[in-house]
């Protein structure tokens, strides 16, 4: 796959490194931003580690729903780690540069994890669909083997599709000043630095986004339409509330993730500006991963009960 022939114009030289200028206009606030983003990063990693550890030690949480939640928590930790630590370093440095190879590595990582999350959220929606619409067949349809297949398919889709796409992007020549109007190597800002016409690349990327972002989104919507119909047929209000409560956390996470993903990758090129790109990127790289542990702990009764049981068994607390 190739977009345009890598012909050079004039005496432009190829870039060997890129320079970020996202926060150049906020020089006085960079120490404050460093502290804020560091706290968010530590909170996100710590929160997801707690969720993974809690599910690991609590046998009551050894169910398909929480198997997928472990995958999601691990993914979120890797996702925010692919962007924020480097951003923190750059906030303390006057020159914010990255090599082309380092930029490619960062883009590979967050793109693979982002697409994997699309597929993983669809698998989680299917799990809730089976649990509510076919409760008597749940253990059969969501067997450990099926859960492993769905999780493996999610990760494989992310790795295969995004590896091909990012390899294609970095086969293009980059020239000029190498200045990126962003705080990390996002796809759109980097493609703007290509020395060749990237219109074909953008069209293919838009089509891939429509297929691999919208297809899981449609599967999620179809699953929740069936879930909604089933819940409305439950005669008791308590039963409807109990059924809906098992889905509420996932619905919030899906809304946050797809809201920013659709705004970023499905919108036309003419709508993209450096300001909107940076604002939405902060949402899906920093804010959304930080909110997920809060959503799955504060809004999930089973997780809160498991946390209480674990803390009550703590020997140090018993001695107090």
Please outline the helices and strands.
Elements lengths: L16 E4 L9 H28 L6 H18 L2 H8 L5 E3 H34 L4 H4 L2 H26 L9 E2 L6 H5 L7 H34 L4 H29 L8 H25 L2 H12 L2 H5 L1
Helix pairs in contact: 1-2, 1-3, 1-10, 1-11, 2-4, 2-10, 4-6, 4-8, 4-9, 8-9, 9-10
CATH superfamily: Rhodopsin 7-helix transmembrane proteins
Helix and strand run? EHHHEHHHEHHHHHH
Biggest sheet: strands side by side, in what order? Answer: 2-1-3
Oligomer: single chain
**Measured on Cα atoms, how large is the radius of gyration?**
22 Å
Mean pLDDT: 85
Mind explaining what this structure looks like?
This protein is an all-alpha fold and 320 residues long. The protein has a single domain, classed as Rhodopsin 7-helix transmembrane proteins (Rhopdopsin 7-helix transmembrane proteins), CATH 1.20.1070.10. Helix content is 71%, strand content 3%. It has twelve helices and three strands; from the N terminus they run βαααβαααβαααααα. The chain has helices spanning 30-57, 64-81, 84-91, 100-133, 138-141, 144-169, 187-191, 199-232, 237-265, 274-298, 301-312, 315-319; strands spanning 17-20, 97-99, 179-180. Strands 2-1-3 form a three-stranded mixed beta sheet. The longest helix is centred in the middle third of the chain and has 34 residues, at 100-133. It starts with 16 loop residues before the first strand and ends with a helix. Mean pLDDT is 85; it is low at 1-9. Putative odorant or sperm cell receptor. Belongs to the G-protein coupled receptor 1 family. This is Olfactory receptor. The chain crosses the membrane at residues 32-57, 69-93, 105-126, 147-170, 203-229, 250-267, 279-298. Keywords: Cell membrane, G-protein coupled receptor, Membrane, Olfaction, Receptor, Sensory transduction, Transducer, Transmembrane, Transmembrane helix.
């Amino acid at each position: 796959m190739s977009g345009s022939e890598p012909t050079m114009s004039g005496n432009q030289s190829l870039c060997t490194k890129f320079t970020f200028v996202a926060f150049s206009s906020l020089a006085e606030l960079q120490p404050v931003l460093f502290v804020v983003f560091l706290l968010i990063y530590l909170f996100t990693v710590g929160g997801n580690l707690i969720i993974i550890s809690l599910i690991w030690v609590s046998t009551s949480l050894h169910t398909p729903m929480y198997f997928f939640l472990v995958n999601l928590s691990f993914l979120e930790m890797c996702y925010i780690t692919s962007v924020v630590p480097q951003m923190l370093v750059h906030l303390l440095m006057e020159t914010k540069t990255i090599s082309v190879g380092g930029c490619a590595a960062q883009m590979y990582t967050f793109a693979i994890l982002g697409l994997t999350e699309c597929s993983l959220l669809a698998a989680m929606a299917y799990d809730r669909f089976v649990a509510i619409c076919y409760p008597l067949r749940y253990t059969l349809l969501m067997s450990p083997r099926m859960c492993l297949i769905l999780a493996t398919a999610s990760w494989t889709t992310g790795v295969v599709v995004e590896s091909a796409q990012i390899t294609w992007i970095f086969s293009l020549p980059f020239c000029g000043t190498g200045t990126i109007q962003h705080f990390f190597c996002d796809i759109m800002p980097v493609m703007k630095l290509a020395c060749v016409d990237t219109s074909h690349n953008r069209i293919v990327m838009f089509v891939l986004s429509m297929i691999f972002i919208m297809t899981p989104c449609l599967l999620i919507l179809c699953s929740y339409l069936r879930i909604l119909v089933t819940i409305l047929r439950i005669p008791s209000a308590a039963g409807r509330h109990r059924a809906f409560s098992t889905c509420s956390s996932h619905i919030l996470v899906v809304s946050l993730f797809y809201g920013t993903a659709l705004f970023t990758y499905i919108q036309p090129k003419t709508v993209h500006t450096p300001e909107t790109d940076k604002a939405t990127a902060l949402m899906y790289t920093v804010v959304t991963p930080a909110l997920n542990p809060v959503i799955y702990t504060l809004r999930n009764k089973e997780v809160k009960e498991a946390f209480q049981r674990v803390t009550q068994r703590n020997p140090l607390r018993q001695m107090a």
